[in-house]
């Protein structure tokens, strides 16, 4: 594992990883170094076949305050070509997170502004505190949520994305849940306990089946019915039924016993 300056990547013995944004003094705001380190960390996660899922969190009071002010000041002094390079780096991060093979869960407390909504939207699931504050703040400083916009629209829908991108209104955890950015919101004092419950639930599931389901849902997309999609789905269930974990899961269910992935000893 790399030694990171802005992140912590911690592997749990039960078979999942937690990726912590760790610029607490800067409210976990993005800069070029953090973006590059996030790309490297996700590459490491992608290459670790033992991991079942990834949890994305922020150290301290806030998930992420968005872009670092000093980094934005530097960007304002760059020419178009250099700004385009910066945008491509951010896009690589967002697309890599969205396409990660294993399930991803974001956990949000405090502020989540600007590009932080991109990270949350790129994750498969997100939970947060009722008193968390969300904002697509770019238009307040003369910018647009360009790179993150496809993922935000997928998460909350086009109509809500238009509202919050154009008004830069702040909204809380319960509203974030209502529009689909969060799966659930909880009182802040119970958030860590709820994270434990989500982790315990994910650990009940077949690692291979979760990966296969994520691939399946990516292919299904918005669910438009086509002959090609029908064939893909037919092949998908046939493949997983004859897979090692598919066979183990079916046998365990019929024999009324836990499947092997629920009874494994903690990994060192």
From TrEMBL:
PROSITE patterns: ENOYL_COA_HYDRATASE
Spans traversing the lipid bilayer: none
GO molecular function annotations of the record: catalytic activity
Pfam families per record: ECH_1
GO BP, sorted A to Z: isoprenoid catabolic process
Homology family: Belongs to the enoyl-CoA hydratase/isomerase family.
Protein name (Swiss-Prot/TrEMBL): Gamma-carboxygeranoyl-CoA hydratase
Record organism: Pseudomonas veronii
